[in-house]
Amino acid sequence: MVLQSLQGLPAFIAYFCLTIVAVVVYLAVYMRITPHDEFVLIRRDLPGASIALGLSLLGFALPLASAVAHSANLLDCAIWAVIALIVQILVFFAIRIPVPDVSDRIAKGEMAAAIWLGLASVTAGLLSAASMTL
């Protein structure tokens, strides 16, 4: 019974490691393209930075989870992870159209800008996850 349950353990480990790497890559890319340093702002106790970054990460994790659930193999999953990353980067640039100074506002501690960015990221993540019909 236990051995039967553990048959999926190698696949679990492989996909979990892949998703951890994808998340680290996502954070590195995302923080590189944003004009503000989220972790510096978080260390300064600016909640907007945590909200924006956390919701952006959630917006990436949603389609990543969908990719794990629906992909044929690790390579397929990795390809969809890259697509999810690209979508989130595009969202960051798209939300700057109506609010061009969103990064400056987040750095100043303005919550509205952080919520706008975060929820736009989650929305894109939900739509991306639903669109991954693989």
Written overview of the protein:
With 134 residues, this protein is an all-alpha fold. The chain has one domain (10-131). 81% of the residues lie in helices and 0% in strands. It contains seven helices and no strands. The protein has helices at 2-5, 9-33, 38-43, 47-70, 74-95, 102-107, 111-131. It is elongated. The protein starts with a helix and ends with a helix. The mean pLDDT is 95.
What characteristics describe this protein?
134 residues; mainly alpha; 7 helices; elongated
Topology:
Blueprint: H1 2-5, H2 9-33, H3 38-43, H4 47-70, H5 74-95, H6 102-107, H7 111-131
Helix pairs in contact: 2-4, 2-5, 4-5, 4-7, 5-7
Helix content: over 70%
Principal-axis shape:
elongated
* Alpha-carbon Rg, integer: 17 Å
User: Average pLDDT, to the nearest integer?
Assistant: 95
Order of helices and strands: HHHHHHH
Which band does the percent of strand residues land in? Answer: under 5%
| Uncertain regions spanning at least 5 consecutive residues | none
Number of separate helices: 7
Largest sheet composition: none
Count of extended strands: 0
Distance between the termini: 32 Å
Task: Decide which structural class fits the backbone.
Answer: mainly alpha
Query: How many domain modules?
Result: 1
What would you say about this model in short?
The protein is an all-alpha fold and 134 residues long.
